[in-house]
Description:
The protein is mainly α. Helices cover 81% and strands 0% of the residues.
Amino acid sequence: LVSSFDSAFRGLFYVLKVERNFRIHAAIGTGVIVLSLFLNIPLGDFLILVLTVTLVIVAELVNTVVEMLIDSFIQEYRIKAKRIKDAAAALVLVTAASSLIVGYLVMARYFPPEWGHAFENIAHSPWYITFLVLILVVVTTVVLKFTLKMDSLVTGGMPSLHSAISFSIWTAVSFMTFGREPLVSLLVLLLALWVAQSRV
């Protein structure tokens, strides 16, 4: 029995070490659980969150096992092996997407109303502040590129001007919409992350 637990923990730590996506899901899941502890979520909703996070982790583990099995038995490229891996990845995608929806629907009811008011107060600042901040972000990014002696001050390399502007837009949209529609902020954040990932 002790040996079984030891093997299970070794397997978990191995996947944590070698699988980047698993680490990302584990970190996000842990963050959601920790945040829920500060929101005084009732036990029923808390258990729903824990189960949802667990399902994502399990889906990622299954995906990893499938990939390892395929790689162990098939060395050359085969279309069927690719389709099996794609189907396993789809399992993670569907589980993660549904967990995102469930997590939002559960947690949005318990966010303190003061959080929304803070965003609204900033949102009521003068309209030109958004453009001034965007200009400041662009100038800061270009100066950083110059300081780091990048080949181009506008395209390519880190820090990414595209990513900086994307996250600035996400911040502006969050200030304008978070109090009424937090989901809008989340969707724009996903777009900003997509832009940042494409720059990498």
